């Protein structure tokens, strides 16, 4: 399911996303138990009527101001992610801007830029500019449910784009976290 959401209509990205899903499943003992991270599309790549542009800024403690200017944000996708306790996303980016909102549980969101874990709880939302490398994890003891609205979603291809394995290893070491993947140590 996750690879369908992440890589619809793009064979190369489908292979990459399938590998990420497989690695995430293996890293957390996939199989008969619940997937460590699952994705359920709520809206698959809908288009707004007319032209849509977006200018967003977000300032988080300790980071430079994130600014997003999208000349064409006329497509969106909405995905519900369920993240099991202890599960971690691989380091990645997105092809569009993501509005993140927690419906349940807690989420530790980590930008590679500063390696600081920012904790989100239900009722807290955040802007992921898309081009900033990051990971996220469920540090709690109950499943976390995240609603992600991807603005400027491409007509085809992945919605989550993993970084190269060597970059992931370097980020794991620098940020003192172990993300899933063939690079895991």
Provide a descriptive summary of the structure in words:
By secondary structure, the protein is an alpha+beta fold. The chain has a single domain (2-175), classed as Jelly Rolls (Sandwich). It contains three helices and twelve strands. A five-stranded antiparallel beta sheet has the order 1-4-11-6-9, covered by helices on one side. A three-stranded antiparallel beta sheet has the order 8-7-10, with no helix packed on it. Strand 7 (107-111) and strand 8 (117-120) form a beta hairpin. The longest helix is centred in the N-terminal third of the chain and has 17 residues, at 11-27.
CATH superfamily: Jelly Rolls
Work out the radius of gyration.
16 Å
Q: What are the segments in which pLDDT stays under 50 over at least 5 consecutive residues?
A: 1-32
Number of strands: 12
